[in-house]
TrEMBL record:
Record's protein name: Prephenate dehydrogenase
Family of this protein: Belongs to the prephenate/arogenate dehydrogenase family.
Keyword Oxidoreductase annotated: yes
PANTHER family reported for this sequence: PREPHENATE DEHYDROGENASE, PREPHENATE DEHYDROGENASE [NADP(+)]
Pathway terms, separated by semicolons: Amino-acid biosynthesis; L-tyrosine biosynthesis; (4-hydroxyphenyl)pyruvate from prephenate (NAD(+) route): step 1/1
Catalysed conversion reaction: prephenate + NAD(+) = 3-(4-hydroxyphenyl)pyruvate + CO2 + NADH
GO molecular function: NAD+ binding; prephenate dehydrogenase (NAD+) activity; prephenate dehydrogenase (NADP+) activity
Keywords of this entry: Amino-acid biosynthesis, Aromatic amino acid biosynthesis, NAD, Oxidoreductase, Tyrosine biosynthesis
InterPro entries: 6-PGluconate_DH-like_C_sf, ACT-like_dom_sf, ACT_dom, NAD(P)-bd_dom_sf, PDH_C, PDH_N, Preph/Arog_dehydrog, Prephen_DH
Pfam family of the protein (one): PDH_C
SUPFAM superfamilies: 6-phosphogluconate dehydrogenase C-terminal domain-like, ACT-like, NAD(P)-binding Rossmann-fold domains
A single GO BP: tyrosine biosynthetic process
Length: 394
């Protein structure tokens, strides 16, 4: 079922809300912005993410804090305004995207529905059973709502970190309930399509157990590893390479947001962390045995490392296909402006598509290594072209 999204309301103009807004603007969609923090809304607007939502007077000056049209505890459901009701004095969007912390999603949904803010609604919270259960408990109109979650993000918060291309080729979970209308599903599917992501329909409970494994437990594990660095010596930090950066990048995320995410998925995350803890405890005791001269303990370590290689190999590639088998071409680059641009220019000249790029740069050294991931057949082409142009390709 085709669904046209002419106007989309984004409530919560932080990293994800503003990224959604920028992606939609790039597709010619009109975007209305609301945030309880006026500074966040203004910055998003200045970044070209859309225009301020002029909420109906009854919804309050700040749409994100929209007061329900009825009293908070009224018996009627949020759908009382009727499916086609326009907000008095306000503008009604085709879809509202609620991009606020998980614990606030359902109350926002209720307030927006009571204000008649949009025809259909979704949210982008990292957990799914919590907002759906709360929305049901609060009496929201579940027919107009399909909960969702883009599996893309960054370790930074706020509109300044937003990217229009954040969702390109990424999975985006859709968790309709039995009440969700076909029209609401179509509207949210269209949103995912406009953002360039791949829709994946999944039950909310299954979603939460899955993201415990692929997102939430990895975050806590990264935090535990990064916490070791808090009192590491200057010598240790000076020797930090790309590996520790890779393993700890996501630990830079906002602790307040992450407390909300982890609390909303506590039992599934605890279960994964218990399994990780068992592996770590076994590895530590095997290493203690090795240190004590028991060479047989190396088998246990090897087993864990091999299971790690197998698990890592199962992560699908950039566009959701099978795990990628790119070849990495290492190029020595000087610490001068424009080096990376020149490297990309060579790739462009010889028609080599850069699948990924990573910079390895030790502090204090005038040189770094650019690791350029390319398709296997492109690697010799690129290596030859770089050699011919005087680049150091070890
Ligand atoms: N950070 C990430 O990488 C990802 C986050 N998410 C989910 O997206 C949602 C937003 O997260 P971020 O954009 O990262 O956070 P953020 O902190 O960058 O932005 C959240 C925004 O929501 C606003 N806000 C908070 N409570 C509000 C309320 N009741 N009404 C209106 N605005 C309110 C804040 O003022 C802030 O501007 C969360 O539910 C999170 O779980 C989903 C995918 C990735
Ligand atoms: O930083 C990254 O690479 C992430 O993948 C971040 C992320 C954080 C929370 C989500 O719900 C989804 C993705």
């Amino acid at each position: 079922m085709a669904s046209e999204l002419r106007t989309v309301l984004v409530v919560g103009t932080g990293l994800i809300g503003t990224s959604v807004a920028l992606a939609l603007r790039g597709q010619g969609v009109r975007v209305l912005l609301a945030d309880r923090d006026q500074g966040a809304m203004r910055l998003a607007r200045e970044l070209g993410a859309g225009e301020e939502w002029r909420a109906a007077p009854s919804a309050g000056a700040d749409g994100a804090n929209a007061q329900p049209a009825g009293s908070a505890g009224s018996a009627g459901s949020a759908g009382d305004a009727g499916p086609d009701a326009a907000p008095a004095g306000g503008e009604r969007a085709d879809l509202a995207v609620i991009a606020v912390p998980p614990a606030h999603v359902a109350t926002e949904l209720l307030a927006l529905q009571r204000a008649g803010a949009a025809a259909h609604y979704t949210d982008v919270a990292s957990v799914k059973a919590l907002p759906i259960d709360e929305a049901r408990r609060l009496g929201c109109d579940l027919g107009a709502y399909v909960a969702s979650h883009p599996l893309a993000g960054r370790e930074k918060s706020g509109p300044g970190a937003a990217r229009a291309d954040l969702f390109l080729g990424r999975p985006w979970a859709l968790c309709p309930t039995p009440e969700s209308s076909p029209e609401a599903r179509a509207a949210v599917l269209r949103l995912v399509e406009l953002c360039g992501a791949n829709p994946v329909e999944v039950d909310a409970g299954d979603h939460d157990r899955a993201v415990a494994v692929v997102s939430h437990a990895p975050h806590v594990t990264a935090s535990a590893v990064a916490a070791r660095l808090a009192d590491a010596s200057e010598v240790a930090l000076g020797l930090a390479g790309q590996g520790v950066r890779d393993v700890t990048r996501i630990a830079g995320g906002d602790p307040g947001l992450w407390l909300g995410i982890l609390s909303g998925n506590a039992a599934p995350v605890a279960e994964v962390l218990e399994a990780v803890s068992r592996d770590l405890a076994e590895a530590a005791s095997a290493l203690r045995a090795l240190a004590g001269g028991d060479g047989t303990a190396s088998t246990d370590i090897t087993q864990l490392l091999k299971r790690g290689v197998a698990g890592h190999g199962r992560i699908p590639g950039k566009h959701g296909g099978p795990a990628s088998s790119y070849v990495v071409v290492q190029v020595v680059i000087g610490d001068r402006p424009g080096q990376l641009a020149k490297l990309f220019q060579v790739c462009d000249e010889v028609g080599v598509n850069v699948e990924d790029v990573r910079l390895e740069h030790a502090p204090g050294l005038p040189l770094g290594i650019a690791e350029v991931s390319v398709q296997p057949d492109a690697a010799p082409v690129l290596t030859r072209a770089l050699h011919e142009r005087g680049w150091q390709v070890p």
